[in-house]
What does this fold into?
Amino acid sequence: MRGSYSLAIVISLLLHGTLIAVLTYGWEATSRPERKPMPQFVQAKLVTIEPKVTQKKTPPKVDLEQKRRQRELERQRRAEAEKKRRAEIERKKKEAEKKKKAEQERKKKEAEEKARREKERKEQLERERRSAFDEALEEEEELLEATEDTQAVMSVAQAIQARIESVWSRPPSARNGMLTVVQINFVPTGRVVAANIVEGSGNAALDRSVLTAIRKVEVFPEVAELARKEPALFEREVRTTLLNFRVEDLRQ
It folds into this structure.
């Protein structure tokens, strides 16, 4: 390659030299009388043109061990990040479940409390209803018992008075309208143990006639029967009995 360049340079120099010589000779033949300054010769220099050779760059050496370590670190970093992400998801999930459970527990307690209050309210209403019913029933029973007791006492009182009046002999001095009130004390056998004038008629003979009639009867079976069946009623209403003896049917 260098030889071809050298040959080209030599040929170029020869051509330049021949051209200069021809020009010089022709110039001198035609215009010798005039002397003109000689032109300066072109200086030729040998230039060596080095061919361009594209040199391949040597790739930098790759540290495989470092690259492996970097990949391992990156893998660990990603694994750690994934682990944290999963842990955060699990934490949020547990927290959501905990809140859900707490909410369910709260609602359950509210429902139980509501049911308990409703049950207590119904039980209270039932107690009040039963109490009112029981009170009404008790009052009705008491009233019925009182009515029955009153009827029983009145029946016994009428029987006592009828027995006494059946043997009562009124004195000639008695007059219609005269009233004698007598208190009679009985024992459970129906026997009279005491008889006293509570309110006199104003006629002593009439008052004595009432006491005499009571002593004649002496024992009253109706009183004994009541004392046997209803001892409390006997003690409360009959043991001590007040009777009115009025003179009404005398012919004047």
